[in-house]
Design a protein that fits this description.
Elements lengths: L1 E4 L13 E5 L6 H21 L19 H14 L9 E5 L6 E2 L4 E4 L4 E3 L1 H14 L2 E5 L7 H11 L4 E3 L1 H5 L5
Parallel strand pairs: 3-7, 7-8
Antiparallel strand pairs: 1-2, 2-3, 4-5, 5-6
Helix pairs in contact: 1-2, 3-4
C-alpha cells in the first residue's frame, strides 16, 4: 500500500523518492493485510499531525508532507506501524519506489538528492540505498536507479539482490522509441 508520496507525485518538495509503501507480509489473509494497511495509513495521519505536518495527499493518494529529510519518511512510517499496533520488520515491512530516473542528470551521471543537499554518483546511490536496507525493514526497492544506469543496476543487484526484491519498472518497461 502506497501511504506516503514525494518526488514528482507532489507539487512541492516532500521527499526525493516518489513512493513509500507498507507491505503487511505477516497478515494471515489479504483481507487482514488490507485492514492492517488502512490502519497504518490512518495512524500515519495522526503521526504527521502530531509532528506539525499537513496531511495533504500526493498524486497517488499517499500523504505528502514537506518533511525535513528523506529518512524522516521511513521514520514516520515506522512510528505509524507501531502506533497501529504492529511490529515493523516482523508483521509489516517497507517498500520504496524512488523513481530515481527523476533524480538523475544524464549529462553529469549524478543523482540529485535535493532534500539531502547531495549529488551522488551511481556507486554512491547504491550505497545510499544499501545503508537504508541495513537500517530499516525495507524489503523492496523499485526504480532505485535511473533506467539507463546499467552498470549500477548490476551493482545494486550484487549488493542487495539476495536480501531484497529489486524491481526495475522503468528499466524494463520503458519504450526506447518514445
Amino acid at each position: 500500500m502506497n501511504i506516503l508520496n514525494g518526488g514528482a507525485h507532489t507539487a512541492w518538495q516532500s521527499t526525493d523518492a516518489q513512493e513509500f509503501m507498507v507491505m503487511p507480509l505477516g497478515a494471515p489473509s489479504f483481507t487482514e493485510g488490507l485492514r492492517w494497511g488502512a490502519e497504518i495509513y490512518h495512524a500515519l495521519k495522526a503521526v504527521l499531525k502530531g509532528r506539525g505536518y499537513t496531511t495533504l495527499v500526493g498524486d497517488e493518494g499517499g500523504y505528502a508532507p514537506a518533511l525535513k529529510a528523506n529518512a524522516e519518511a521511513v521514520e514516520v512510517i515506522l512510528e505509524a506501524i507501531e502506533k497501529a499496533g504492529y511490529k515493523a520488520g516482523e508483521q509489516v515491512s517497507i517498500a520504496l519506489d524512488p523513481a530515481a530516473s527523476e533524480l538523475y542528470d544524464e549529462e553529469t551521471g549524478m543523482y540529485n538528492l535535493r532534500k539531502e543537499g547531495k549529488k551522488l554518483n551511481g556507486e554512491q546511490m547504491v550505497a545510499f540505498w544499501k545503508s537504508w536496507v541495513d537500517q530499516y525493514p525495507i524489503v523492496s526497492i523499485e526504480d532505485g536507479l535511473a533506467q539507463d544506469d546499467w552498470d549500477h543496476w548490476k551493482l545494486m543487484v550484487q549488493e542487495m539482490g539476495d536480501r531484497i526484491q529489486i524491481v526495475g519498472d522503468d528499466l524494463l518497461v520503458t519504450n526506447p522509441t518514445g
